[in-house]
Amino acid sequence: MRLITVTTAYPAQGGLELVAARLVEEFAQRGIEVHWISSDTEVTPPDFGQQVRHFPIRTWNIIERLTQLPYPLWSPLSLPYLWRAIGAADAVHIHEHLYAGSIAALLIARLRHRPVIITQHMGALGLPNRTLTVLYESGAKTLGRILFPLAARTVFISANVRHFFRQDANPRSCLIFNGTDTELFSAAPGQSSSRQKLGIPAEAKVVLFVGRFVRKKGLRILRQLAQRHPEVFWMIIGSGPENPQDWGLSNVRVYGRVNHDNLPDHYRAADLLLLPSAGEGFPLVVQEALCCGTGVLSTDEVGSACPPASEMIRTCTTPRDGFDVNTWSQALNDALSDSDYMQSREARSRAARALWSWNSCAEAYLRLFREIIPDVPR
């Protein structure tokens, strides 16, 4: 089997790209040849023999520089290459329907009579004002109504994303929750060991944020909470156009980008992962935190995304226009003062690690590919 994987970027910081990378690895381990096409905005990973080849596309990234919304535009000169590569493949796997590169790959696949699976990670999206939010949501839904029928299957990574697009009853759509590296992300060796390694006071209340430094991720809420709660030690991991170092708060430590293999110590050191963002599916950082036993405070949107995990997540109202930081401040206090929740790290880790594995995730995708590719053994 030869697959084309299409993403908007190569993995450097985003959860979507890390998911795509792990699926590519799982496919390659099963003897599948994968050609991964993406923007040249990040460092291109090394090829993995003949099993995984990377093809960066020349990209203009002016939209993100102007608006903080990552929307790479691929050079039209890439179209002949896309035509040849897709025509030589058995199937195409596209992550996210909204991007220009995704749309081009889907249309070319239809013209070349190659089946497509779209994996949809994002649904609703909180933008700076209500008008932009309505325009985005209307555009995303309209584009979904046009593009999803062109795909052989549409996969949603959370229940709320599937519901956003009103695809719950569509027999050609399904839910496949992202996997997690359950060996890397676990509660061991424990909070005290990780805090000592990172130089964090053993008795401190520690809250962690992991994500892009953009408005969508709730940085404005994070800043106000850090100001209101000087007794809390804040660890902030990520990068982007907004810089939390500019806040000038002594209780905030900004780590920038952290190698994925080093993230578990940060999760274990924290009491709580705080993710006050809008427009999430089921973020990979939430799964990783839960597998490490860390508590999670996020939005009601995230809390409903994976019903089997809902009891492990503390929630607050998804921030929209005119959000009330007081409700988030109270939710933070409630979570940190809930001794039963804080002390259930081991049980939370066991429950989360039992829910998600990359092996079962990859096998679910391969079953779909076998269904849609002619002449592939079922």
Structural class: alpha/beta
Spatial separation of the terminal alpha carbons: 12 Å
SSE order, one letter for each helix or strand:
EHEEEHEHEHEHEHEHEHEEHEHEHEHHHH
Please give the radius of gyration in angstroms: 21 Å
Instruction: Give average pLDDT, whole number.
Output: 90
Architecture overview:
By secondary structure, this protein is an alpha/beta fold. About 40% of the residues lie in helices and about 20% in strands. The protein contains 15 helices and 15 strands. The protein has a seven-stranded parallel β-sheet with strand order 3-2-1-6-7-8-9, with helices on both faces. Helix 11 links the parallel strand 14 and strand 15. It is globular.
Q: Can you lay out the helices and strands and say which pair or pack?
A:
Layout (H helix, E strand, L loop, with lengths): L1 E5 L8 H15 L3 E7 L12 E6 L1 E2 L1 H6 L5 E2 L4 H9 L3 E5 L4 H12 L4 E5 L9 H18 L5 E4 L2 H6 L8 E3 L15 H8 L6 E6 L8 H10 L3 E6 L14 E5 L6 H7 L2 E4 L8 H8 L3 E5 H4 L9 E4 L8 H13 L1 H4 L2 H11 L2 H15 L6
Parallel strand pairs: 1-2, 1-6, 2-3, 6-7, 7-8, 8-9, 10-11, 10-13, 11-12, 13-14, 14-15
Antiparallel strand pairs: 4-5
Please name the defining characteristics of this protein.
single chain; 378 residues; 7-stranded parallel beta sheet; 6-stranded parallel beta sheet; 15 helices
Short characterization:
The chain is built from 15 helices and 15 strands. The protein has helices at 15-29, 62-67, 79-87, 100-111, 130-147, 159-164, 191-198, 219-228, 263-269, 284-291, 300-303, 325-337, 339-342, 345-355, 358-372; strands at 2-6, 33-39, 52-57, 59-60, 73-74, 91-95, 116-120, 153-156, 173-175, 205-210, 232-237, 252-256, 272-275, 295-299, 313-316.
